[in-house]
């Protein structure tokens, strides 16, 4: 991989965005490599942690490439299809954000299930300043995450959210010193990994809004039949706590 560092662990994959010459801006090569990571996680579901190298998460889509794209490339949804694929990965995804997460970089974090930040994290969508739309999820995911009023301030008024504001608006779950960011992210993933994997997978599917309440009932029907449920509930009733 030329734009990512990828660590494959038993229960999780850790991806570090790495284009130091361009503040980890997301170019076509990075898109392709992130699709490869998705393919591997779809085949063998595991948790995903995404972070950025060198004190930046990602400074957006690569502006040099964006400048050359026309209508046909926009209609291909180059970034939005990748971020949708990430959002739909079977098991939870976490973004650990140190420094700038702007434009497509911010949208990549919005597509993850949970975000943690260092004090230097900055989220923003400056796309209209470049004469384009934030078309890879910000226009609807950010509203879901922080509400319409704050989302419009970010999208229409160029407001950047620093780490404390991101915490206050619920965009990130916690703010931790940069040196502890990955450790805290792994602790969160450890907590997730202790859940029943099928239960976690189905919870994500249902929580992401597929047809309530039918899907909830279907998911619960599968889980009620599982050996994992019996073992976990027997352990609870016998006095074990996780
Ligand atoms: N696409 C392509 N290259 C980018 C980039 C992007 N989104 N963001 C930064 N870079 C490049 C810069 O052109 C520069 O390259 P150079 O060293 O060859 O001149 C290098 O990364 C370092 O960027 P620089 O602006 O000097 O770093 P900085 O620390 O002063 O500022 C940012 C960091 C993130 C505030 C600033 O780079 C920035 O505003 N980037 C664009 C953000 C944006 O509009 N994103 C939305 C894109 S849709």
Automatic annotation (TrEMBL):
Matches recorded under InterPro entries:
ClpP/crotonase-like_dom_sf (IPR029045), Enoyl-CoA_hydra/iso (IPR001753)
SUPFAM superfamilies from the xrefs? Answer: ClpP/crotonase
Instruction: State the organism named in the record.
Output: Paractinoplanes aksuensis
Instruction: Tell me which Pfam families the record gives.
Output: ECH_1
Q: In which domain of life is the source organism classified?
A: Bacteria
Q: What is this protein called?
A: Enoyl-CoA hydratase/isomerase family protein
